[in-house]
Design a protein that fits this description.
Distance between the termini: 50 Å
Shape: globular
Helix content: 25-40%
Number of helices: 5
Order of helices and strands: HEEEHEHEHEEEEH
CATH architecture: 3-Layer(aba) Sandwich
Strand content: 15-25%
Structural class: alpha/beta
Largest sheet: 5 strands, mixed
């Protein structure tokens, strides 16, 4: 009986340890630059203005989601949530842009943030004019974004998470639907923290 209780705990601890080892191994690799994030100004889940100026000098990780998404968004958001713990002793910030701002009001995003146990002041959920958000996704981050169409009742958006350095330069893209996305993203984030210390 004791074996049945301990076995899952041992497996879980082993998986976390293996991820830690892999993160350390990957942290030494070179990471590229993909251009600068253009300036933006939106509104966060608390109804407060929030933009690129709030992120100046910070390393940050971004994604594009929406709170009523029936597809990959819950996985993307849970993976983002998963990174809060290993990065808790850093100044890394998390940003989630909604691709459905008509429905995702600040109040809706606040409730979504609460479900994800998002750390206040550390993870912001941004909404604003749809044209600005889509322009930022397509031209700023070079990621797909499209509104509802006759063939799809849901907004189309990328499943990639984006790593941005302290100078506002994009340093990596990570497909949240792949098994090793978090390991690679954590490794590259740790690399940036050493490359660009506070």
């Amino acid at each position: 009986m004791l074996v049945l209780i301990l076995f899952p705990l041992v497996i879980g601890a082993s998986m976390l340890w293996l991820r830690h080892v892999e993160v350390q191994r990957l942290a030494g690799r070179q990471i590229q630059g993909y251009g600068a994030v253009p300036p933006f100004q939106l509104v966060n889940q608390d109804g407060q203005p929030f933009g690129s100026s709030n992120l100046a000098g910070k390393i940050w990780i971004a994604d594009f989601i929406y709170s009523t998404c029936p597809g990959p968004c819950p996985m993307i958001s849970s993976r983002m949530s998963e990174m809060q713990k290993p990065l808790e002793k850093t100044d890394v910030h998390f940003i989630s842009f909604t691709v459905d701002p008509d429905k995702d009001t600040p109040a809706q995003l606040r409730e979504y943030a609460s479900r994800l146990q998002a750390q206040p002041g550390r993870w912001d959920f941004l909404t604003g004019p749809k044209s600005e958000i889509y322009n930022l996704s397509q031209h700023g981050f070079k990621l797909a974004a499209a509104d509802r169409s006759s063939s799809s009742t849901e907004p189309l958006h990328s499943t990639r998470m984006i790593l941005v350095d302290r100078r506002g330069q994009i340093r990596g893209y990570y497909d949240a639907t792949t098994a090793d996305a978090i390991t690679k993203l954590l490794a590259d984030t740790n690399h940036l923290l050493k490359e660009q210390p506070l």
